[in-house]
Structure formats: C-alpha cells, structure tokens
Specification:
The protein is an alpha/beta fold. 46% of the residues lie in helices and 16% in strands. The protein has helices spanning 2-9, 16-28, 33-46, 50-61, 89-99, 118-122, 134-144, 157-169, 175-188, 209-225, 248-258, 264-280, 287-299, 302-313, 319-322, 349-359, 403-413; strands at residues 77-81, 104-108, 146-150, 193-200, 229-236, 244-246, 332-337, 342-347, 375-378, 385-386, 391-397, 414-417, 427-431. The strands form 4 sheets. The protein has a 4-stranded mixed β-sheet, with helices on both faces. A 4-stranded antiparallel β-sheet has the order 6-9-11-7. Strands 10-8-12 form a 3-stranded antiparallel β-sheet. β4, α10 and β5 (229-236) form a beta-alpha-beta unit.
C-alpha cells in the first residue's frame, strides 16, 4: 500500500487491479484508515483519469450486494439529484414518468445538513414504508412500475466507509471521488440508465458551472465504460426550488404540482428531467414531445393516480394524498417580513436550508430526529419587488423557541437592490 500511495502521490496512473486491491483491503480491514487517508489526499491533488475513475466506481459497486433488476422487463431508469433545498423533484417525477410507462426502480437517501432527503419526505405520509428486501423491491417495481426505498447497509459499503474518511480528511471536493461515490450507488441499484440532476450554486455542493460540467463528463464516461447510459442536467440551486421547504410541506407541494398547480420552476424541472428519462427508456425520441406527454398525464389526473398507487403499495395512507389538509400542521408559525423595500436580488438556498434545520425540518447530525410538520413556505423569491414589512415567508415549528435561531439565518438569506435583477436560468446545460 505504501508503494501505491507513492505512485499516486507522484502523479502516476494506478491499474484496475491496484485500485481493486485498495478498495478490498479497506473494506476487509487489512489496509488501515491512515493509509487510505494518505491515498485519498494523493488522489485529491493528483486526480484520476477516466479509466481509474471507472475502476474505482466498479470496485466500490462490487464491495457489497448488487440489486438484480433483470426480472423486470424493459429499460430501468433512475434519477439522482446531487442535493438541494426544497428539492421534492422525486415525489413529482417518479409517479409522473411511471404513469408514462417508464420503469422507475429508485433507491433514495435521507437528509443531512441543509439538504432534504426524499425518504424523510415520504415518511411524513403516515404508514409509508421505505425499508424492504431486494425481492420485495423488485416485486413492487414489477407490479407498479415504481418503488422508492432506502439503501440497505449491504449496498456499497466501500462508499460509506470512504465517504466518512473523506469527510474528516478534507478530501470530499474531488471530481473523481464524487463521481465514483454517486455512480457506484446508482449502478449497484441495477439501473440501465440514469438522469443526474447536477445542482449548482449557493445551496449546492457544486458551486460553479465549470465544475458541474467536469463532473458530468466524468460520470458519463464512467457510465459508458460500464455499459450504462447517462444524461446530466445542470440546474440552478441559488435559491430554493419551489416554495415549500420541509417534509410534509414539500409533499403537499408535490401533490399540488401533480394536480397542475405547482410552482413554475419545480414543474419545469420535472418536465425536463422526465422527458430525458422517457428518452433513455426508449419511449420517445423528441424532447418536447416527451414534455407534452407528461403535461397531459398531469392534466388528466393519471400522474396523481400513480402517486396514490405508490403510497398504497408501500403501506402509506393514500387518503393524505387525496386530502392533503390531513397532514399535521406545526403547533406554531411565525411570519418573516421584509426588513427593507426593494427587489430581492439574491436568496441564499443554503441559509434558507439551515433555517429549516433550526426549525426541526432537517438533521444537524445523522442521529437528529426530524419534525415532519416543521419548515418554511416562501412567499417571495428572486426578482420580486417587496415593500418593507411585506410577508416574505412563513416559518413553522413545534416549539416557539426555535424561531430565533431560524430567523438569524433568514436575516442572512436575503439581499435587496433598487433595480430588478436578471434571473438565472433554471437549467444551465444538458450534457449527454
């Protein structure tokens, strides 16, 4: 291992077998943390080429259980987001494309820090179960064309161990390490094709479009080397997506979106990602035609019907989907008002996300409990003109003392200007 550390430190290319031995040794405990930490730092500074990144992805993917989706006919398409604030896309997109005949076998994660987790949002629906065996998962996808479950502990253990080490050694921000982490999990879940929603901006892990493009190209090259298809959509996360931030609040917004009354940005992003998923599934060849099909499925109620079916199939009370007013409301609410007049020129997704965590809607540590009713509803966003004292947002919490901490982040989130700002595009680029 010392020789392999030196080899990468000096900028040389590691072979596939060498990378396999590093991953295997780390997982079985024969290579200690401190040597893997040194190797990660060497990778951080020297980088990896496409072959090395694919080899690392493959070794990580095979470090644990693989989900076999071959009993399910057709092309299985997955979607992954690199995380954001108010990103309830999967709750809309999964049922929507499943209603269009796309097979969606999705494994999702939980929220940590300022980003929300799909599983937490789904679990705000009473009875909804996200844990299931691989056999149950396949059975549900076969029957309903969609299932969303949690990743089990046996899936890609190398990624869990490597990420924990990267997190405490300052080696998270490396394109190849990020790509192999995301891709190993997606490929272990058995998808034939993947649409990646690469978030970029204030509330995202990736801050620049240039870095997002680099990551997209490495992911595509890795997928191709492993016989899979991938499309990367680079979308903005300067401000929260939609109006709702929180768990039950985001589910309610997703329901409204499937009824055709959702926020413009969330609706447009779901139509775009959904059309690409349909293209990868071989359902369409024309992007705009795909979006038209999805609009029709929203208009005729079939997309919402599929969400009801999904919730019922996983033990949830579908009456909450049909009657969203049944969701428990937080005991306390407080309005956040504009401190001055002017146009909102910037709205920090990061600060809004952190405010929601302070209210109880997110986790500060993996062990933190979640209050499903807590969160924020945004009433004004970038480009809107406000007068001093206007209602910018309503905050919800189960304990009144939580508002002070949240308001400190709200104060940091808004920037105002005398002139109307130029709004950034929702989607910057699509990389094939």
């Amino acid at each position: 291992m010392v020789e392999l550390i030196k080899k990468k430190r000096d900028g040389h290319i590691l072979t596939t077998d060498e990378i396999k031995s590093i991953v295997a040794g780390f997982v079985d405990g024969s290579i200690p943390d401190y040597q893997i930490a040194a190797w990660l730092m060497a990778v951080f500074f020297q980088g990896m080429n496409d072959e090395e990144t694919a080899a690392l992805t493959d070794a990580m993917m095979r470090s644990g259980e693989l989900i076999d989706l071959s009993p399910i006919p057709g092309i299985k398409v997955d979607k992954h987001s690199t995380g954001g604030v108010g990103d309830k896309t999967t709750l809309v997109l999964g049922p929507l494309v499943a209603a269009a005949g796309v097979v969606v076998a999705k494994m999702s994660g939980r929220g940590l820090g300022h980003t929300g987790g799909t599983l937490d949002k789904l679990e705000s629906i009473p009875g909804f179960k996200v844990e299931m065996s691989p056999a149950e998962f396949v059975e549900k996808v076969l029957k309903h064309h969609i299932a969303i479950c949690s990743q089990n502990e046996r899936l890609v253990p190398a990624d869990k161990q490597l990420y924990a080490l990267r997190d405490v050694t300052g080696t998270v921000d490396n394109i190849s390490l990020i790509a192999s982490s995301v891709m190993s999990k997606k490929l272990a879940c058995g998808a034939d094709a993947i649409v990646i929603d690469l978030k970029v901006g204030d509330g995202a892990f990736i801050k620049t479009i240039e870095d997002a493009e680099k990551l997209a190209k490495i992911m595509i090259a890795t997928a191709q080397r492993m016989g899979r298809q991938l499309i990367a959509v680079i979308s903005g996360m300067e401000e929260p997506l939609g109006h709702a931030i929180g768990n039950a609040l985001e589910v309610k917004e997703a329901i409204e979106t499937l009824k055709g009354h959702g926020p413009e940005d969330l609706t447009e992003l779901c139509l775009s990602l959904g059309s690409y998923m349909m293209m990868l599934a071989g359902k369409i060849t024309d992007y705009e035609a795909g979006k038209d099909t999805l609009r029709r499925l929203i208009a005729d109620g079939k997309a919402l019907d599929k969400l009801v079916e999904l919730v019922q199939s996983q033990g949830g009370d579908a009456d909450y989907i049909l009657h969203p007013e049944r969701f428990e409301m937080a005991a306390y609410s407080k309005v956040y008002t504009a401190p001055q007049s002017g146009y909102i020129s910037h709205l920090s997704a990061m600060d809004i996300g952190l405010a929601s965590v302070k209210l109880g809607a997110g986790r500060e540590t993996k062990e933190s409990p979640i209050d499903y009713s807590a969160g924020i509803i945004m009433h004004k966003k970038v480009g809107d003109y406000v007068e001093q004292g206007d209602n910018l947002a309503t905050l919800y919490a189960s304990q009144p003392e939580l508002f002070d901490g949240a308001f400190r982040y709200m104060d940091e989130a808004y920037t105002f200007s005398a002139n109307k700002p130029e709004k950034q595009p929702l989607i910057f680029k699509t990389v094939y």
